Amino acid sequence: QARFSLHGGAGPFYKLYAAFVILAIIVIGVAMWSLLSAAPVQMAKGNLNVKADQIARSMWIFAAIYILLLSLIPLFVSLVQNLVWNHAQLEQHRFQSEVKWGRMLFIIVSNYVAVICTLGLFLPFAQVRLMRYRIESLALLPQGSLDDIVVQAGADVGAAGEGVADFMDFDFSL
After folding, report:
1. How far is 64 from 139, CA to CA, in rounded Å?
2. How many other C-beta atoms can be found within 10 angstroms of the C-beta atom of residue 2?
3. Which class for 31: exposed (0-12), middle (13-18), buried (19 or more C-beta within 10 A)?
4. What does the pLDDT look like over 89-112, one tens digit per residue?
5. How confident is the model over 72-81, as pLDDT tens digits?
């Protein structure tokens, strides 16, 4: 059986997660500060002299923080995928992942818009579209022949899978 391994240790993962936790704390802190000093809070305290520009400013701050948080998700996903696959090996063969944050952000935002416009009917296509990009960004860098892995995989095939497929009446023919 082919040996799959992950090299590089836990250090880069801890650094990535720590950076995003610190960033999330900062963003949430700024959000809380802006919401607590916002016009609706002043109005609730009885200060009715709140101007329309203060309300608009607090709405823009809230929208900007929301957009910032939504844009951090694709950045985190792309960095984690690149980190995992760039340190992965199958026997002596390496992998390379080149997921771009901007492209991932575009796909996720356009998927959100398409799902909303189609009342959820586009959701399966959106999931396939995102996964397709993530897989297309992944490459195998062979360090020799792949025949050894193919031969090993062919030797490990048993009849149990065929029997279960027949028992459950699945048809996997192409």
Report:
1. 36
2. 14
3. middle
4. 888 888 999 999 899 999 999 999
5. 888 888 999 9
Number of CB atoms found within 10 A of residue 144's CB: 9
Match 């500060």 to its residue by tokens: 33
Residue found under tokens 């935002």: 109
Strands (E) located in 10-137: 88-90, 93-97
Q: How far apart are CA 168 and CA 60, in angstroms?
A: 56
The rounded distance, in Å, linking the Cα atoms of 19 and 27 is 12
DSSP line for 111-172: HHHHHHHTTTTTHHHHHHHHHHHHHHTEEEE-SS-SHHHHHHHHHT--SHHHHHHHHTT---
